[in-house]
Amino acid sequence: MTVKPTILQELPADLEREKLPRHVAVIMDGNGRWAQRQGQPRIMGHRRGADVLKELLRCCQDWGIQALTVYSFSTENWRRPMEEVNFLMTLFERFLRQQLRELVAEDVRIRFVGDLAALPLSLQAELERAMEATRQNKGIRFTMAQNYGGRQDILQAVRTIATQVQHGQIQPEDIDEAVFERHLYTAGVCDPDLLIRTSGEMRISNFLLWQVAYAEIYVTETLWPDFDRSEFHQALRAFQQRDRRFGMVKN
Predict the structure, then answer these.
(1) Is the residue at 146 inside a domain?
(2) Does some domain include residue 49?
(3) Which residues pair with 143 in a beta bridge?
(4) What is the reported pLDDT for 1?
(5) What residues contact 41, with CB distance under 8 A and at least 6 apart?
(6) Is 186 part of any domain?
(7) Could you tell me which of 56, 58, 67 has the C-alpha nearest to residue 190?
């Protein structure tokens, strides 16, 4: 199954390039419901969702978005039926094997964040191969949160810093936001400016809890497999209409 044809290859005229978000984060929700509405197994929604992700990544490149982070598998997703979990693991491997050459050619730098050690060994090998192959790329920073949870991310950072304090490598009074952020899985990438959630659910679902503190949140009823460039265009339009004060009062 292929992604339906889309337009808007160039940045739409009603968007201001200087006001684009530097970093977009996406909770890709609704694959299973989309498949069920089509009378298909849930796994077909995930397969379609992978195609949509490829198109969104290309759209971000075309329009000048610097970073894209997607929630591909959460720490809670292990609770799903084992057949679905196994399919997702296989889908991730296949996605990387099939797309790695294009990612390298298009200068994408891919990164995976989360507790990767808990993933199947064959998938871990593919993740490492993809990161190594794109490590020197200078284009869009593409991050996939894999076996990721926001609370888990914060806890592992706290444990690492606590160990450093215990060993005298850092003093408690030296711990500030910058130090803390350097120990998060996402270290080195700016915080998201825009968080998009598809399928209409009004929650963050344990995604990037620290990092989205000042992100603008955009929720659409559209299910992820139907999220195309036109939908992304609408999300960016909404973002550019927001008044981002960061706690300040404008004169």
Answers:
(1) no
(2) yes
(3) 69, 111
(4) 37
(5) 35
(6) yes
(7) 67
Residue 243: exposed, middle, or buried by beta-carbon count in 10 A (0-12, 13-18, 19+)? exposed
Instruction: Decide if 215 is inside a domain.
Output: yes
Residue of 29, 153, 193, 228 marked active site? 29
Q: Using CA atoms, how far apart are residues 225 and 46, in angstroms rounded to an integer?
A: 8
Domain that holds residue 88: 18-61+74-136+154-194+208-238
Taking residue 160's Cβ as centre, other Cβ atoms within 10 Å add up to: 14
Q: Is 86 a catalytic residue?
A: no
H or E, element range at 81:
none
List the structure tokens of 6: 């889309």
Number of separate helices (H) and strands (E) present in the chain? 7, 6
Tens of pLDDT, residues 196-242: 999 999 999 999 999 999 999 999 999 999 999 999 999 999 999 99
Structure tokens at 49: 């969702």
pTM of the model: 0.92
Query: In the numeric block, which tokens belong to residue 103?
Result: 């990612």
Which candidate in 31, 62, 77, 86 is catalytic?
77
Q: Is 251 a catalytic residue?
A: no
Measured between its terminal Cα atoms, the distance across the chain in Å is 53
d(CA 83, CA 17): 43
CA 106 to chain centre: 18
